[in-house]
Amino acid sequence: MKIGVLSLHGGVIEHLNHIRNLGADAVEVKEENDLNELNGIILPGGESTTMGLLLRERGILNPLKQRILNGLPVWGTCAGMILLAKEIENDFRNHLQVMNIKVRRNAYGSQLDSFVCSYRIEKVTNEEIPLIFIRAPYIVETGREVDVIFEIDGKIVAARERNMLATSFHPELSSSLEFHRYFLNMCKEYF
């Protein structure tokens, strides 16, 4: 199985390491040709505006969007969630617009408001895992086909729509491989 990690900006190496630790092939995606032969792609955390700009400058935005719409499994963490969203509540910019969610950027506040908590997410694992939030967004609205995976205090922080997964938090920054394992299993459903 070959999993790409968008490698234009943000937390790339941690995702690559987690995927490799689970025995899959992990590759960096920096240009359109890197999208070939992927079984899934991860859009990492970082700064969504910068990532959107780089996707456009490198000519990857539309080819990536088409691959996702054609069934390529994708997982957006934090800024990656924003890239996937059809609507961003507090920003006029939109990016891939493929997942039927409305997201609030920096919903938990500034860098100083970052936090870590632990929960058991039944749809992902039976064990408690750390959830790391850094200037995190959350989902404020979902379409009918979106499956809410997890909420904290009534705020949606993980969701899935068909081949698309989005999390507000950063599983790659913890030692837990559970969310990456969940994504790999999701990729197997499509290939």
Automatic annotation (TrEMBL):
<comment type="subunit">
    <text>In the presence of PdxS, forms a dodecamer of heterodimers. Only shows activity in the heterodimer.</text>
</comment>
<comment type="function">
    <text>Catalyzes the hydrolysis of glutamine to glutamate and ammonia as part of the biosynthesis of pyridoxal 5'-phosphate. The resulting ammonia molecule is channeled to the active site of PdxS.</text>
</comment>
<dbReference type="GO" id="GO:1903600">
    <property type="term" value="C:glutaminase complex"/>
</dbReference>
<keyword id="KW-0378">Hydrolase</keyword>
<keyword id="KW-0663">Pyridoxal phosphate</keyword>
<keyword id="KW-0315">Glutamine amidotransferase</keyword>
<dbReference type="GO" id="GO:0005829">
    <property type="term" value="C:cytosol"/>
</dbReference>
<dbReference type="InterPro" id="IPR002161">
    <property type="entry name" value="PdxT/SNO"/>
</dbReference>
<comment type="similarity">
    <text>Belongs to the glutaminase PdxT/SNO family.</text>
</comment>
<feature type="active site" description="Charge relay system">
    <location>
        <position position="172"/>
    </location>
</feature>
<dbReference type="InterPro" id="IPR021196">
    <property type="entry name" value="PdxT/SNO_CS"/>
</dbReference>
<feature type="active site" description="Nucleophile">
    <location>
        <position position="78"/>
    </location>
</feature>
<keyword id="KW-0456">Lyase</keyword>
<dbReference type="Pfam" id="PF01174">
    <property type="entry name" value="SNO"/>
</dbReference>
<dbReference type="GO" id="GO:0042823">
    <property type="term" value="P:pyridoxal phosphate biosynthetic process"/>
</dbReference>
<feature type="binding site">
    <location>
        <position position="105"/>
    </location>
    <ligand>
        <name>L-glutamine</name>
    </ligand>
</feature>
<comment type="pathway">
    <text>Cofactor biosynthesis; pyridoxal 5'-phosphate biosynthesis.</text>
</comment>
<feature type="binding site">
    <location>
        <begin position="134"/>
        <end position="135"/>
    </location>
    <ligand>
        <name>L-glutamine</name>
    </ligand>
</feature>
<dbReference type="GO" id="GO:0036381">
    <property type="term" value="F:pyridoxal 5'-phosphate synthase (glutamine hydrolysing) activity"/>
</dbReference>
<dbReference type="InterPro" id="IPR029062">
    <property type="entry name" value="Class_I_gatase-like"/>
</dbReference>
<feature type="binding site">
    <location>
        <begin position="46"/>
        <end position="48"/>
    </location>
    <ligand>
        <name>L-glutamine</name>
    </ligand>
</feature>
<protein>
    <recommendedName>
        <fullName>Pyridoxal 5'-phosphate synthase subunit PdxT</fullName>
        <ecNumber>4.3.3.6</ecNumber>
        <ecNumber>3.5.1.2</ecNumber>
    </recommendedName>
</protein>
<dbReference type="GO" id="GO:0008614">
    <property type="term" value="P:pyridoxine metabolic process"/>
</dbReference>
<dbReference type="GO" id="GO:0006543">
    <property type="term" value="P:L-glutamine catabolic process"/>
</dbReference>
<feature type="active site" description="Charge relay system">
    <location>
        <position position="170"/>
    </location>
</feature>
<dbReference type="GO" id="GO:0004359">
    <property type="term" value="F:glutaminase activity"/>
</dbReference>
